[in-house]
């Protein structure tokens, strides 16, 4: 059975979806293991949430591209908190809007190593702790880009189609164990995503011009709701978009 206070590990917890998940789940009494490359941010967040909600929180540096970094972070987090129940493989990024043949190796490798390899490494390291606990939940953070490709996003879309495939495969592979698997796949959402992708603040703002997009807390609520479902219920996939976005290519703008 789901414990009263699940211990939740979140990668990419320094901002965006990860930070919002940490804040929302802490308010629900979950204990947290927060990881990111910007360790000072997750440490400050862990300290804040511990004081505000009386939970236990561990913060550590993790670069999900590197196996040793992931393994060390997960092991330290489990030891500090007394185990793990939930793994949220949240760390991910898009880099550039290149056509397939224009994509530089640096951007190609950043997306595939973080969005695909990093997810494998995070879940691979976390699963033994979930199995030991006897109850668990794995969250993949996908994207509408994993359902519908678009121009200028070939590699990013490929990585998110990969996330969807991994989530569906893991769901089959864990059948018979008391470990749930959920993929949360958001559309347009205001985070640092576009700033990182476009490397230009004005261009990033233009992405959402005239639109009321999802917030990070909208996506965090999908995680909270799935986690709190009755034990016999598995929410396999949530595809969530703002009302203004009907599809990747159809967005209503009030301009």
From TrEMBL:
Does the keyword Oxidoreductase feature in the UniProt annotation?
A: yes
Which domain of life does the protein's organism represent?
Answer: Bacteria
Output the Pfam families linked to this UniProt entry. Answer: adh_short
Bilayer-crossing residues are none
What InterPro entries is this protein classified in? NAD(P)-bd_dom_sf (IPR036291), Sc_DH/Rdtase_CS (IPR020904), SDR_fam (IPR002347)
Asked whether the keyword Metal-binding is assigned, the reply is no
Keyword annotations from UniProtKB, A to Z:
Oxidoreductase
- Which protein family is it in? Belongs to the short-chain dehydrogenases/reductases (SDR) family.
Protein's recorded name: Oxidoreductase
- Organism, by scientific name, is Geothrix oryzae
Recite the lineage of the species: Bacteria, Pseudomonadati, Acidobacteriota, Holophagae, Holophagales
